[in-house]
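As a warm-up, study this chain.
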Amino acid sequence: MPASITPTLSPQELEKQQAAAAAVRWVRDGMVLGLGSGSTSAQFIIQLGAAVQNGLKVQGTATSLASEALARQVGIPLLEPRRGLRFDLTVDGADELDAHLRLVKGGGGALLREKTIETASDYLLVVADSSKLVPQLGRFPLPLEVVPFTLPWVLDALDGLGAHPVVRPALADPSQPYYTDQRNLIVDCHFGAIADPEALAARLQVIPGVVEHGIFLGLAKAAIVIQHGQPMVLKPGEAARPATEFAALP
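Now compare it with the structure written out below.
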């Protein structure tokens, strides 16, 4: 019989595992957690599930149907949305983050649920590989979640802002649009460098039909980002510190 072959992980995949492992160390017994979406968040959910199997008691709500399915698979008890529900800690990835921990999110199409849960969280911890930290937001296209009926007028408004908007196609059939878990569309905007994220967010928020935009401001309290092969904790206005200095929420 041929020997089994263990797949070799790419450097980026290894970094995602490192960031996720560092984030799991911030979780404490009894916490109510927001469970993010995307590949780095998936690593966190998998490693959190292993901790649950070893006796850690937590509950969570997922920011996407995919994350919800993964959480169930690894045995994390889930809570349904309800009034008054708040989260001690949410762990989620980002498509981009800057030194002020302003984020661009929505590459996976879950920005509405992500922003909802993260706004209801006492602490948002971002987990990211080294490629996600940027000097200025805008290299990654900015996603907007849009009500389908309003799409023509939303695109007109975005053209007026110089967004170069593109309706995201479905992965399985690019001739069809991508639909979010809430059955909305995603429009990816190509602004280029975003010099003033706060001003742009304000302009996008008032376009009728834009349910949510992918600029996340004032939500992330810290980020675990891999730098030079090591997980480092970034906080706004502070120098990066090794994640080993943090055993729980600072």
